[in-house]
């Protein structure tokens, strides 16, 4: 089954990392469906029912975004606040996200050492992890690109993009290939 990739980058056309990730994901159209919140909703007025329906269609959802000031872009927080609503995602009549596998693909401006010696990246995502778990989701993989502000080479960026795709590709064996 396809995986939904919810991209939340406010300046995707200027991005090198996230744009390369999208290009690499696009090489696997039968595996990944890319859904860019800022492209679809430039005013951030989400169609809640359409978004809930979209989320319902996927078992695996990847949230892709850059870290901004130790958090996610505003649109992702707004999206979760509005789309993951009481009576749909949780509470009486909720549970529509229960059992879904959630992953993260995150880019940072700072290098890995900065995060490891300060606030590790997984710790920065705790609020989201707890929210998803509260809704019955299983939080799994985290793929990261550290040091976007350090002028990484095209080769490093492409290798990271391939590693991202590989991390989320379904495992196949000769028996089920």
Instruction: Report the biggest beta sheet as strand number plus sense, adding barrel if it closes.
Output: 5 strands, parallel
The number of strands is 5
CATH topology: Rossmann fold
Class per helix and strand makeup: alpha/beta
Outline type: globular
Sequence of strands across the biggest β-sheet: 2-1-3-4-5
Q: What CATH first level would be assigned?
A: Alpha Beta
Stretches with pLDDT under 50, minimum 5 residues: 173-177
Please state the CA-atom Rg, rounded to the nearest Å: 16 Å
Helical content stands at 25-40%
Task: Give the tags.
177 residues, alpha/beta, Rossmann fold, 5-stranded parallel β-sheet, 5 strands, 18% strand, disordered C terminus
Give the helix/strand layout:
Blueprint: E1 3-7, H1 17-25, E2 32-36, H2 37-40, H3 48-56, E3 60-66, H4 74-83, E4 101-107, H5 112-116, H6 121-124, H7 126-134, E5 138-145, H8 154-168
Parallel strand pairs: 1-2, 1-3, 3-4, 4-5
Helix pairs in contact: 1-8
Q: Explain this structure to me?
A:
The structure is a single chain. The protein has helices at residues 17-25, 37-40, 48-56, 74-83, 112-116, 121-124, 126-134, 154-168; strands spanning 3-7, 32-36, 60-66, 101-107, 138-145. By secondary structure, it is α/β, with parallel strands linked by helices. It has a single domain (3-168), classed as Flavodoxin domain (Rossmann fold). A 5-stranded parallel β-sheet has the order 2-1-3-4-5. It starts with a strand and ends in a 9-residue tail after the last helix.
